[in-house]
């Protein structure tokens, strides 16, 4: 049986382990996860969701609320149909390989979207990892309705140089591209 619930601080260790196993060492740290958790909350709304299968963490969805994320050089607001104030930011998703194909990823996304809508969001932005094994991340987000805005090379390069991120594809310094994608609700 799959149980869905909001992220709490007692889940941090398991979330960090799963996120780093999927995305690479130091993708999530205690400090970054606490920051992401805070960014996913506004008042009573919590956009961060977890899925458990038989009591084990099977999936995570970390989503920033509108106004809780910054535009950077790899954002193209002139190409978005809505202002940033009406967008959440899909920061991180990871599903344990043993449970992929069960609908966990989609349900976590739907729960984050439902929460984002209560905050006035009309869409969500993401930077999708183009070098994920089999390009599964891009395929998944496209299947969920995500529309490609623009591709950005070397999205996580600085993170790998200055913050200890170890890309599992590039074996260290990251040269992976990100697809800036918009999912309209």
Automatic annotation (TrEMBL):
Q: Which domain of life is it from?
A: Bacteria
The N-acetyltransferase domain sits at 2-168
PROSITE patterns on file: GNAT
User: Molecular function (GO) terms listed?
Assistant: acyltransferase activity, transferring groups other than amino-acyl groups
Q: Which Pfam family, just one, is annotated for this protein?
A: Acetyltransf_1
Chain coiled-coil ranges: none
* Keyword vocabulary terms for this entry: Transferase
> CDD domains this protein is in?
NAT_SF (cd04301)
Check the record and name the InterPro entries matching this protein. Acyl_CoA_acyltransferase, GNAT_dom
Return the protein name: Acetyltransferase (GNAT) family protein
